[in-house]
Amino acid sequence: MTSDVTSTADLPTVPATPRTSVSPASRTALGALLAAFGTAAALLSMTWFVPGLETLRPWHPGEPIPLVAALVPQTGARVVESENGELVAAPPEVARAAPVTPVAPPAAPASWDVDPATLPDRPPGTKTALVDASHRGMARFYRALHRASRGEGIARAVHWGDSTIAADGISGTVRSRLQSRFGDGGPGFLNAGMDPQWSNRPDIALTREGSWDTKSILHAGAAFPRYGLGGIVTTGSDGATVTFSAPRKGDARVPQHHVEVWYQVNPTSGKWSASAGGKGLGGGSAVATAEGDRYAVKDFPSGVTRVSLSATEGATTFYGVVMETKGPGVVWDALGVVGVGSASFQYNARKHLAAQVAKRRPDLLVIQLGGNELGLGVLSKGAGEGYAPHFGNVVDKLRAGAPEAACLLVTPLDQGTRKGGSVVSKPLLKTLIAQQRAVAAAKGCAFWDAQAAMGGEGAMGRWGARKPPLAWTDLAHLSSDGQAIIGNMLSDAILAGYDRWVASGAAVAVESELAAEIAARASAAPKATTPKPAGTKSTTGAAKKPGTRSTTSKKPAKPKGKASVKAGDAAASQPTSTSAPAGADKTNKRRATSRKAKRAPAGPTAE
Q1: Residue 285 lies in domain
Q2: Are residues 370 and 470 part of one domain?
């Protein structure tokens, strides 16, 4: 019997590996290297703890983490829009290179809408007016403002942007300034998925209960390519509720008189309900054979201050709510989403977005993007002409739902980078702004240079060096005080443009329209009868009080004697007394009865 066990004597002999010894010199060098790393780490950590060393930090929030961006590959299929506005995977040839039509920057800067020297001082900012020749880009909004100034309607503006707008510092300041002059039209459109992670409205109190799944155009991920007007969509599970409370004025919240709920229907939705001030607003099933958008709209003459949305049976997807006063006034919607750029809007289907914009009926579209696009390769090629069609496509997409609305393009703020111990503007920012100015001119939009308003080259460093600082240490964002300055400067430019538009005589046509509308309403309104004081005699053909006689409702009795007087002598022969002669009442009644009997048509008498 044989054995399968191999004897250890048959195994080959493996020579022992000699232990490598480290020489004293190597140990000394290794210790010195570790000491150097430790010293460097200690020195770098001091920049986070010692005041005045902030500019020496190797990394700041908002910047790419050193080495990580280079070591971690960026993956994911590229997505483009089809002809019908849906998202599809890009063909290989499109993913590699998309043909572009360069838009050259203007040969010379366009003239200011108004003289910047006439604008208020806002240190450390630099007076900057709108670039809007002949008010071409802003005229529609100015008309709406003028109507509001005359007590008619609401002027609506929709402001898209990235993190510069997401905190509502700049847009909120503009809203406050315009409402203080033209009236409070309400907070406007509010994202149902509003959250400090994506966007915020400090003037709105928001409470949320239950489970909510929120998606934005930054990372996409929603079940359908529909992210609503604000680029954020949220789905509440069964029983989830979100409540919006109107802004305060003093100790009380401002009543809102017009409320809308914007929501989505699709095959997997459940049921929903909404209330405003405890009163029913809408609800029911959100199930449909295909995805689509729906709106519940209701007016509240007495006003409400809270609006609640709930998913009652199953999950329901909401875009947001609209809260407006009865006017007149201004509404300035703030639709900023942290981290987005022009490319982010590809995730929102074109036809869906156009329908949402149209539903909002804006008078002005404000687009402020580009702060997250300074790393695009097209900006470093030539004069950056390849960026213009990239940015222009987003402008066209946002304007598709309201092509007649005014249009204002606002550039990114200054962004800094550290160079030789000082802060300078990022090199491609100037190129990006030049191309955005070219797009504004080509599309007929007004243009406002936010970097120039900050003071131009290196402004972010100067704003951050002020006491207290007006900019964050990431050299890309402003503090709340800094945002308020920029918001006031943008408001100054808009109001100066409006005043110049009025002074040009353009408002005369609006005045004529308003006068015609007021006259038409007056003629269509039912005429009210003014009641007479008790005990007075009627001087018209109106119904008389029982027991009294009308002085004009009956013809005076003919005087006794010869036949009637000729028509030409009627005035001279009229009796001066308004009382009928004795016995005339009975005679006139008999004659009237006889005439009625002759005119009465044949036929049965109604019982």
Answers
A1: 188-326
A2: yes
